[in-house]
Amino acid sequence: MEMQLSQLGEAANQEYDEQEDFQRLYSFLLFIAALWIAGKVFARAGMPALVGEITIGILAGPHFGNLVPESDALMLEGELALVLLMIEAGLHVDMEMIQIVGLRALAVGLIGSFLPMGLGMLVASFALGLDPMAAFAIGAAMATMSTGIALNVMKAGGMLNQPTGQLVLAAATVNELVCIGLITEIDAIVAGGPWQSYVLPLVIMLLLVGFMSFVAVKLVPCLLDKVILPRIAKGNRENLVLGMLLVATAVYMPLCKYTGSSALLGAFLAGFCFCTDEHVHHTWNRQVKRIATFLMRFFFACSIGFTIPVEDFGDQEVWGKALALFGCILGKLAMGMFALPLTKNEFLTLSFAWGSWGEFSFILALRAVRGNLLEGRNYSSLVLAVLISIIICPTALRCVLTRSAREANACIELAKHETDACEAGIVHNVYYCLQTRSCAQWGQQGALLSVLGEVDCKIVDFRSFHPFHHVGTQHIVNELYLKDMRLQLALADQLDPTDQHKLDGRTAEILSEILRALHDAEVKIFRWQPGSGTVDLIKEVHHPGNNPCMAGDPSGEPSVEPPVNSIRRDGSFHEQLAAQRAHDAMERSMRWHHTEATRALDDYCYPGTPRAHHELDGYVHTDAHDAFDLSSVNGSDGRGADTGSDSASRTSSTSFSNTEDEPSQV
Fold it and tell me: In this structure, which topology does domain 71-403 adopt according to CATH?
């Protein structure tokens, strides 16, 4: 009997344990579902998903509902998400982008970090009455910007390959390095110690970043592409490069930690040393990116949401402090002054893209709370100020981008109208399409924009593209659609000699100024006539630059001489044939653009850039352009070339071979 009772007791205990395990599992599943739904609902409402995720974390966390089991384990998963986030941040460093934008990237990245930081320290010291160390922690959290949110909004608005979008990309890299340095300083303050413990980690950090820059450009691409990967079966290459990335992370994190820097710096450097290799980018996007995105929900909901007492958000004092801290956003909005050209839309775009605080603010705030630099209400006020900026700035940025797109479309429609068949014989401003290809040059974007202002050309659209790999080669491509504010000509299929002379002189002047700004660049400029009346009248001037060899051409000689000719209705048979093909290609492309709204992104470009298009189809595109045959720099598999209507469109240009007298189709 006693044995039977004992067995019944064990069975009851086992049943109780199983029931408890089921409840914990079911609660965890409901929590994940709530996180996912809240993120989608808030995103649908026009707000970042992280706001909904933090809200769920506050409501389900230990300070309110206490509905989530194993909260410590979930917070640990949030910390793992931070490590993956830092690896991805290192992978996405674009050193050529910083070089192209130049001093403006450094100015926005540094001033846009330290100016709001200084304002935050002043507000914390005088308005909130905090001690210097707590004020420094508040100021450090004010130095960040939300890279992910800003880039997502700008990507949706087609701004990432425009000058302002590229300025934000380059400056965001500088800001990330500043934030990592501030994390190191917060950790040093918490640990205490002599002055060397504050200075030495920053020096080590700068040395490591410089060394990893050399590794990323000179060593990793050569070792992977020429030594390691050719010896590995194609099916195992992804596993190999991912393993190398994880091993580098496992080595660099403790190395940075035990030299006094932040362990997150090690994760950043691990990604940074592979930032120029296409195989690592491709593998990360295929195997890790979705996992990292999913785990970031735990960081916002658990690491942040669980630490906020929900009752603080009903405290009037907390809201007062939050609004005072939110005023520091003026230091971030002032970065709009660095926009070029400094128009209203460009100013507002840069201001609101840089305006919101982001993930690093939460990281710095958590470090300060755990190190007892901030107490509960000040921490809640800081988080609330960050959330307000995350809600307001992306919404304002979307509105500005919508208005900019509307105005840009109006300019394009005007260009189509002024070059339409019904406008034949009427005098209008001349439009051009300008395309350049060169190596990355320091500050070349600003130099190009300044020159266009000097020659009185209004920018209708400006796109720039370069792959992240093959650093140092001649693969920086710009495509600009311009409106000449000086020259006006009557629209005609065949210009009279006087007008033709004016057009030739004007294109030569613009070409000369562009070459002065972009040294050793390859430049193409031709009259752009998007209207349907004169699509087969093409005037092109091409300057091959001092180094005409294409990147990736082992022979060192271009296979085909660049086109320098006019295609006219009264020309030779070959010219008429080329003109007819141009017209047919334009019609096919127009039909294609009406039926397909979006293009697939090329996995081998960062940021994701749509594939090539043709400039003669009557549209201004947001896509990367194949004007100089980018397949030579995107790889022999031709991933940079399009296989749709663009392949047919490439027959519309006529060029002269080096060895033949007759024009050949390319």
Answer: Na+/H+ antiporter like fold (1.20.1530)
Tell me the residue type at 160.
L
Q: Mean of the pLDDT values across residues 65-93? A: 86
Task: Specify whether domain 419-665 bears CATH 3.30.70.260.
Answer: yes
Residues 290-298, mean pLDDT to the nearest whole number: 89
Assess contact for 249 and 89: CB atoms under 8 A: no
Q: What is the largest CA-CA distance in the chain?
A: 118
Residues forming a β-bridge with 478: 436, 464
The DSSP secondary-structure symbol of 458 reads: E
Structural tokens at position 45: 């409402």
Report how far apart the first and last C-alpha atoms of the chain are (Å, whole number). Answer: 96
- Supply the angle between the helices 147-156 and 376-418 in degrees, to the nearest 10: 20
Query: 12-26, 29-43, 424-438, 543-557: which has the minimum mean pLDDT?
Result: 543-557
Q: Which of 578, 468, 469, 451 is nearest to 515 (CA)?
A: 451
Query: What value does the mean pLDDT take over residues 8-16?
Result: 53
Report the percent of the chain where pLDDT is more than 70.
Answer: 76
Domain layout of the chain by residue ranges? 71-403, 419-665
Could you tell me which of 268, 322, 300, 267 has the C-alpha nearest to residue 366? 300
Of 311-315, 321-325, 418-422, 457-461, where does the model show the most confidence? 321-325
Same fold yes or no, 71-403 and 419-665: no
Q: What is the model's pTM?
A: 0.77
Name, in order, each residue with C-beta under 8 angstroms of 466's C-beta and a sequence gap of 6 or more: 96, 97, 100, 440, 475, 476, 477
Q: Strands across the sheet with 457-465, in order?
A: 457-465, 476-490, 427-438, 522-527, 538-543, 566-567
For position 6, what pLDDT does the model report? 60
Give, as one character, the DSSP assignment of residue 550: P
- pLDDT (0 to 100) of residue 137: 92
- Taking the C-alpha atoms of residue 367 and residue 374, their distance in angstroms, rounded to an integer, is 9
557 exposure class (CB count in 10 Å sphere: 0-12, 13-18, 19+): exposed
